[in-house]
Amino acid sequence: MFSKTLRWAWTEVDLGRLAFNMQLVKKKAGDCRVIAVVKADAYGHGAVPVSKVLLKTGADILAAGTLQEAVALREAGFACPILILGLTPDDCCDILMAYELTPVTASYENACAIARAAEAAGRQKDVFVAVDTGMGRIGVPPDEIGAAETARIHALPHLRLQGIFSHFATADEPDKAYARKQTARFDAFCERLRRAGVDPGMRTQANSAALLALPDALCDAVRPGIILYGCHPAGAKAEDFPLRPVMSVKAKITYLKRVPRGTPISYGRTFTTQRESLIATLALGYADGLPRFLTGKGRVIVRGAYAPIVGAICMDQCMIDVTDVPGVSPGDEVILMGAQGDKRISAEEIGEKTGTVSYEILCGFGQRLPKVYIEG
Ligand SMILES: Cc1ncc(COP(=O)(O)O)c(C=O)c1O
Q: Which of 167, 218, 232 most suits a substitution to test ligand 1, by most atoms within 8 Å of the C-beta?
């Protein structure tokens, strides 16, 4: 492992599990097209290998977060449609043409910039128009004004309205009332467009949580992200949708020492041993995505047992207390996220302990640690 990764800490990305999750998604999506969300380097899992698996297992379209990510996917050789979920700056619209990327637009002005680039390239450009049904992020308003703006975009030469796009703010909350209100606004908006003689085309609004919990919101295409990577949106029951976590985070013990009672550990001496202790050091820290907020709350799995993270998590290293785990030696493999035997540490658990969401945990671990791909 060391010769491969140059570090005694790495993420393990199980592409077999990814394929399994995709099959569950396909079953749930039925006849809807699947726009697989691979933004932020596929939530930290590596956009290129992940996209290969997702396309092989039934994704119709890849969704990037930004123009930069979309260009990287195209340069990696993917020939499929690539949708950009965020807005493309007006002065970059020529790149949409050069790389044959599909933008989301949310204003007539931005649509005009895309149309100019399309005209300059002598081709037509398909676009999605975002409607803001309640997320408050991007989108034309879901009323007559928004419908009129969409109709003007639709009428632009060199543009073709491929679809209408919206995003949920609360689909993962137990109370689905607001999400249902968003769906009602979305449906009413599409109906307004039809009355104005504009075909809304491919309607898409469902993220993972909506795919699992709001069958009326599936429309023509769904946009799952987090469930592909094996995390349950808050409130979703694992029994109903048995996802398999794709990413594990592992490290080997780089240093092991027995210390007397009263020994301070790490910056700030926030932890002091209360007994003679066996303290192991791991070569990963907050710069690798292990949140510093886990200090005093985190745990790992070593030799099939849980052991606490002790002392402040450093930038590149952290310490664990293995006094109660028999037989620990330097070089032993430690799991910071993942499973061993009946023990499990999920991204959701780390997120809950650190006041964030599983998404941020996955993205964080995906940044600096080397990735090892397996087919479990
Ligand atoms: C516009 C859009 N669609 C779809 C998704 C996928 O969401 P999720 O990962 O919750 O399925 C995201 C992710 O945040 C998004 O921003």
A: 167
Q: What is the pLDDT of residue 5?
A: 62
Which sequence positions are flagged as catalytic? 39, 267
Is the C-beta atom of 204 inside 6 A of ligand 1?
no
Nearest residue by C-alpha to atom 8 in ligand 1:
225
Q: CB–CB of 5/13 below 8 Å?
A: no
170 ligand 1 Cβ < 6 A: no
Q: How many whole angstroms separate alpha carbon 228 and alpha carbon 363? A: 14
Please provide the CATH number assigned to the domain covering 15-222. 3.20.20.10
Nearest atom, ligand 1, residue 104 CA:
1
pLDDT at position 347 over 50: yes
Q: Is the pLDDT of residue 2 over 60?
A: no
How is the chain split into domains, by residue range?
A: 15-222, 247-345
What number does CATH give the domain 247-345?
2.40.37.10
Average pLDDT over the chain, rounded to an integer: 96
- Give the predicted TM-score (pTM) of the model: 0.96
Query: β-pairing, 9-14 with 247-259?
Result: antiparallel
The average pLDDT across 221-225 equals 98
CB count, 10 Å around CB of 326?
7
Cα 331 to Cα 350: distance, rounded to the nearest angstrom? 24
